[in-house]
Design brief:
By secondary structure, the protein is an alpha/beta fold. The protein has 15 helices and 5 strands. Bound molecules: zinc ion.
Length: 316
């Protein structure tokens, strides 16, 4: 069995003992569950868990340790080209998952295929067709209601994996049709046990989220640079705004995330955390930084967002 099996991927995720137990069972047994909602804060490991479960549900010849890592489905999943997986996330400046993602029958740029169209045909080479909806709380009421229909009468080959960091804003009717899996953050003591090399400051910066902490410890330089950047901000002049914007973009590029948008949004999230704890910083700066974060998550052009954020901060 290859290293890419579900078991070994779960083992490499820190913490999350009870959530991992559920995902392990769902990966290896047919429990009649069509939809799961995996929830937890940024960096808790929910997106990693969602990927692991998605791969296992797609795999055409799963074994006792989950996905085989070798079939066409597993190989295309690894290359991010699995045709039986539809990945939906928020797009646009408003960062909303619009109804077109779920039921639109005409091709739209943002969502070339809707979930309903996707589920209409049986899998090509995988065991199931999987719709993976990240940040499910960003569905507006039209898309939530459209999704409900999908959840009410699913084909046997249909599986849905939803993730959110805001379970309280998910429609109760959707919640009641999903198996909810909580990615609870470990206590500080547990984190210290899991990561003996972590300092209290690392844990603060990771906001107690184990996957985030793991990334920070793996490559601490860029994170320390962002902390230092946040400390220096209150002492900068308005004329430096554009230079700082460029510098911040460089810092974001050095983070270890999955692609530029993730790096840019992570950098902003960390900057907001640092600013919120910095007594020298204008108290509104952290809020503005979080607004910029939402903008970047919703596909806003990062450099333009950074430019206006730092100009606004330094002239306030
Ligand atoms: Zn496989």
């Amino acid at each position: 069995m290859q290293n890419s099996s579900t078991d070994s991927k779960l083992d490499s995720l820190p913490g999350l003992a009870s959530a991992k137990r559920v995902v392990r069972r769902l990966s290896t047994e047919e429990l009649g569950v069509h939809a799961v909602l995996i929830y937890g804060t940024v960096g808790s490991g929910k997106d990693e868990l969602a990927e692991i479960l998605t791969e296992a549900w797609l795999c055409s010849s799963p074994g006792s340790s989950g996905a085989c890592g070798e079939c066409q489905s597993c190989r295309t999943f690894e290359r991010k080209t699995n045709a039986d997986l539809l990945h939906i996330k928020p797009v646009g400046a408003s960062s909303i998952i619009r109804q077109a993602a779920v039921v639109q029958d005409d091709t739209q740029d943002d969502y070339p295929v809707s979930l309903r169209q996707f589920f209409r045909t049986s899998p090509i080479y995988s065991r199931h067709k999987v719709g993976l909806i990240q940040q499910a709380h960003r569905m507006n009421s039209a898309s939530s209601n459209a999704l409900l229909k999908t959840l009410e009468e699913p084909h046997p080959y249909v599986k849905l994996v939803l993730t959110t960091d805001s379970i309280s804003t998910i429609l109760p009717t959707i919640l009641s049709r999903c198996l909810a899996i909580s990615c609870e953050l470990p206590t500080e003591d547990e984190l210290m046990r899991l990561f003996p090399a972590a300092t209290k400051e690392d844990i603060l910066l990771a906001e107690g989220a184990p996957v985030r902490l793991q990334n920070i410890l793996r490559k601490p330089g860029p994170y320390r640079d962002i902390q230092e950047f946040a400390r220096s901000l209150p002492h900068r002049k308005p004329s430096e705004a554009l230079v700082l914007s460029d510098k911040f973009k460089d810092l974001a590029d050095k983070l270890d995330g999955a692609g530029a948008r993730v790096n840019n949004s992570d950098a902003l999230a960390m900057l907001a955390t640092c600013l919120a704890r910095n007594p020298d910083a204008n108290p509104r700066w952290a809020q503005w930084t979080l607004a910029a974060h939402r903008h970047v998550v919703g596909n806003g052009a990062a450099q333009a967002v950074f430019d206006s954020l730092f100009a606004r901060m330094l002239t306030s």
